[in-house]
Amino acid sequence: MIKIRVIFFLVTLVVVGVLGLFVSYYARGYRLDLGTFKFQPNGILVLRSEPDGASVYINGHLKTATNASISIPPGTYDVEVRKDGYFSWYKRLVIEKEIVTQASASLFKNVPSLSPTTSAGAVNPVMAEDGGKIAYSVLPGKDVGTDKSGLWVLDTFSLPLGFGAGPKRITDGDMTGATYVFSPDGREILLTITNSSFLLDTGSFTAQNQRINIASRMDTTLTEWAAEKELKDQSLIRNLPPELSDILSRKSLSFVFSPDGTMILYAASSSGTLPEGLVRPLPGASTQRQERSVQTGHTYVYDIKEDRNFLITDQPATIDNTDNPEQGALRWMSTSRHLLFALNGQVVIMDYDGTNRQTVYSGSYFAPSAFPFSNTTKLLILTNLGAPAATANLYTLTVK
Is the predicted pLDDT of residue 36 greater than 90, yes or no? Predict the structure, then answer.
């Protein structure tokens, strides 16, 4: 009887050990090759999409739906995600054995819809540095009452599910020829009309007859704001690898961190080289083509976590919300995984590595006045819908 129990115990240990080994190999991507009856080392592709339920094609063959794990042999694959009513998502991915490669496909509608956000006109929209607010002017006219003309601010982060309570007027009066600049924190705005300058609170209304002219202190205020921004920028790059800090400090026109702080969008002012191995490589890191040689006039995104540097455009583009009608404007979307590229005649959304460039709007608008909102299902564009005599207004563009 004792001998049977010992044998049973030993058999149980062997079975448990074999099952444990099988589960361990399976979790690492190994699969049984029915041709050779051997376990072959595979890689695992974890593919998610927004919205979910999209079809996954690998090398042109339908494999499964998104939000699934796919075990495939090591190699290079063309992966496509398709869903009716949306632009397809495509990437060439390198799958390594025993490595989990994760990819997220954000799908955008191929027939977006437009709806008006303003109706009394909108002139010279300007976005705050953090993307939290947009200021614009409403000029007096025969169809615009005194309760409409003035400077308005639209809060883009008021509600997570939309545009919140809508635009708020922060001062009245004729804004013809007015210029305005947000403070680094977006709480104040410096309004300049003719030879007068006024510092306004972006969260409250200041009547025209209550504004205080600070023209004599305008240059001092702008200098202080520039110093505040410089201090913030230096604090952000202080802990980066020295080679990268040098390029951002001395060889870039400007740079902007992604909302989550893991990416840096920068425009190169002179050439340089980013050495390999600035940070320890991560398993399953991006396998998209990168550019370590930085060229003058080109714009790049550097991935801090994965030490990857991606070319976004080799044409001049603004990245700091100082719009130039002659250049495209690049702006981070709130996902930190996408960029909005506002060009003449079209608005493009792309992945942070420059792939999956989707033209979500093509037509008449006042480039580069296209802005992302905290709700990534919508953008904001300035257009008169192609009617030259019509007043331009801000429209929401639903892209998801």
Answer: no
At a CB cut-off of 8 Å and minimum separation 6, what does 295 contact? Answer: 268, 271, 314
Whole-prediction pTM: 0.85
First vs last C-alpha separation in the chain: 70
With a cut of 80, say whether residue 237 has pLDDT above it: yes
Please give the pLDDT value at position 24: 54
pLDDT surpassing 90 at residue 33: no
In tens, the pLDDT along 119-138 reads 899 999 999 988 889 999 99
User: CA-based Rg of the chain, rounded to a whole angstrom?
Assistant: 27
Query: What fold characterizes domain 2-106?
Result: Immunoglobulin-like (2.60.40)
Please enumerate in sequence order all residues whose Cβ is within 8 A of that of 376, keeping only pairs 6 or more positions apart, or say none: 106, 333, 334, 335, 338, 400
pLDDT digits (tens, 9 = 90+) for 44-78: 899 999 999 999 999 999 999 999 888 889 999 99
Dist. CA 90–CA 242, nearest whole Å: 34
Helical H segments across the chain, by residue range:
2-27, 218-237, 242-250
> What φ, ψ does residue 12 adopt, rounded to 5°?
-60, -45
Beta strands 150-155; 378-383: pairing state: unpaired
Cα 368 to Cα 127: distance, rounded to the nearest angstrom = 12
Ranges of each domain in the chain:
2-106, 120-217, 240-398
Do the domains 2-106 and 240-398 sit in the same CATH topology, yes or no?
no
What secondary structure does DSSP assign to 12-69, as a single string? HHHHHHHHHHHHHHHHTT-EEETTTTEEE--EEEEEEEESS--EEEETTEEEEESSEE
Alpha-carbon span 333 to 270, nearest angstrom: 27
3-state helix, strand, coil in the chain (%, to 5): 15, 40, 45
The enclosing H or E element of 179 equals: strand 179-182
Architecture of domain 240-398: Beta Barrel (2.40)
Give the per-residue pLDDT at 147: 78
Give per-residue pLDDT as tens, 155-172. Answer: 886 444 444 568 999 999
